[in-house]
Design goal:
- The protein is an alpha/beta fold.
- The protein has a single domain, classed as Aldolase class I (TIM Barrel, Alpha-Beta Barrel), CATH 3.20.20.
- 42% of the residues lie in helices and 17% in strands.
- The chain has 11 helices and 10 strands.
- The strands form 2 sheets. It has an 8-stranded parallel beta barrel, surrounded by 6 helices. A two-stranded antiparallel sheet has the order 2-3.
- Helix 3 packs parallel to helix 11.
Length: 266
């Protein structure tokens, strides 16, 4: 897939976030941005690092451009209960509304239902400083930044702002150029996306190729296309600390049971 085609898909996501960013800027002008969350945030990065094992970030995902509607009948609390019981190291919660049918309040719903549950990752398209402020008002411990959607200076600014509010930043990359940008900006947690956004297919070879460049001190996550014990084991052998698994878990009637089966072979 060409960079141009990838950028075209990501531009659709960028446009979908424009109304949200405009709303937040209006709130900022009126001094009505939400106050920071006052509860305890579990350490996201620390939760992923388990010597000799690979961690799984289990995702609550209702829909996606590649799958369409996945499982609209499962509520976030239900999925989170199963994931936590099965041993998820962290939970990823889709909050993007247009393409993934998520909601920001899913984060609060999960944490309210499970106050001592695993750390939460807000997975969305974060493009503006005020989105980080909004995330800091939720119980999330981390948020996602996509290197391809941000120039180097902007990525550096958002990383600094994320750290300033006490959150971890997961920086997603698609190729070597994205990885170089992420490192130059100071990224510590790298997520390799195996999905081709043109064909919407996945290729775990992307993780295999980029893993050769993994540096000491970095925490790496492989995302998209991991559904089987053998695939999880492969990511462990490549040196990934964690894998993010979503659609394959959400597709069944019991996401927690699906995760438990996956982890038994990890």
């Amino acid at each position: 897939m060409s960079i141009q085609k990838l950028d075209k898909m990501l531009e659709k996501f960028r446009q979908a976030k424009a109304p949200e960013i405009a709303r937040l800027r209006d709130l900022a002008a009126e001094r009505r941005l939400p106050a920071p969350y006052e509860g305890v945030r579990p350490d996201f990065a620390a939760a992923l690092v388990k010597p000799g094992r690979i961690s799984v970030i289990a995702e609550y995902k209702r829909a996606s451009p590649s799958k369409g509607d996945i499982n609209l009948g499962i509520e976030p609390e239900q999925a989170a209960a199963g994931y936590a019981a099965a041993g998820a190291a962290a939970l990823s919660v889709l909050t993007e509304e247009v393409y993934f049918k998520g909601r920001l309040d899913y984060l609060a719903r999960v944490r309210t239902a499970f106050p001592d549950g695993p750390p939460l990752l807000r997975k969305d398209f974060i493009l503006d400083l005020f989105q980080i402020v909004e995330t800091a008002a939720t119980p999330a411990s981390a948020l996602l930044l996509i290197a391809r959607m941000l120039d180097a200076e902007h990525l550096t600014q958002l990383l600094a702002a994320t750290a300033a509010v006490g959150l971890d930043a997961v920086v997603e990359v698609f190729d070597e150029a994205d990885l170089a940008k992420a490192r130059a900006a100071g990224s510590r947690i790298i997520q390799v996306n195996n999905r081709d956004l043109d064909t919407l297919t996945t290729d775990l070879g992307v993780s295999a190729r980029l893993a050769r460049s993994k540096a000491p001190g970095e925490i790496w996550i492989s995302a998209s296309g991991i559904a089987a014990v053998e695939e999880l084991a492969r990511m462990k052998q490549l040196g990934f600390e964690a894998a993010l698994v979503g659609a394959s878990l959400m597709a069944g009637e019991d996401p927690g049971r699906s995760l438990a089966a996956l982890l038994r072979g990890a």
